[in-house]
Amino acid sequence: MTATLEAIYEAGHLRLLQELPLPERTRVLVRVETPKEDPGREAWLAAGEQSLMKVWDNDADNVYNELLAP
């Protein structure tokens, strides 16, 4: 069974907003995706980009640019 359901994260637990047609204690796999309108999402993505740019954009990488220059 595959289903997309909304839930709320509270006190360390996901609380589903609707019932599932599953027996009690059924093991499931969960994929978490926050809605695009989540205000914290943009800040989190910006922080991740800044962190990656520190790794990608550094003086040690200039050697590759020198090799590519005519």
Q: Number of DSSP helices?
A: 2
Which shape, going by the Cα principal axes?
A: elongated
**Helix/sheet category:** alpha+beta
Share in helix:
25-40%
- Low-confidence parts: none
Total beta strand runs: 2
Order of helices and strands: EEHH
Give the percentage of residues in beta strands.
5-15%
Nearest-integer average pLDDT: 84
Q: Termini, distance in Å?
A: 57 Å
Rg is: 21 Å
Keywords:
single chain, alpha+beta, 2 helices, 2 strands, 36% helix
What does this structure look like?
By secondary structure, the chain is an alpha+beta fold. The protein has a two-stranded antiparallel sheet with strand order 1-2. Strand 1 and strand 2 form a beta hairpin. The model has no long low-confidence stretch (mean pLDDT 84). It has helices at residues 39-56, 62-68; strands at residues 7-10, 13-16.
Quick overview:
This protein has 70 residues and is of the alpha+beta class. 36% of the residues lie in helices and 11% in strands. It has two helices and two strands, in the order ββαα.
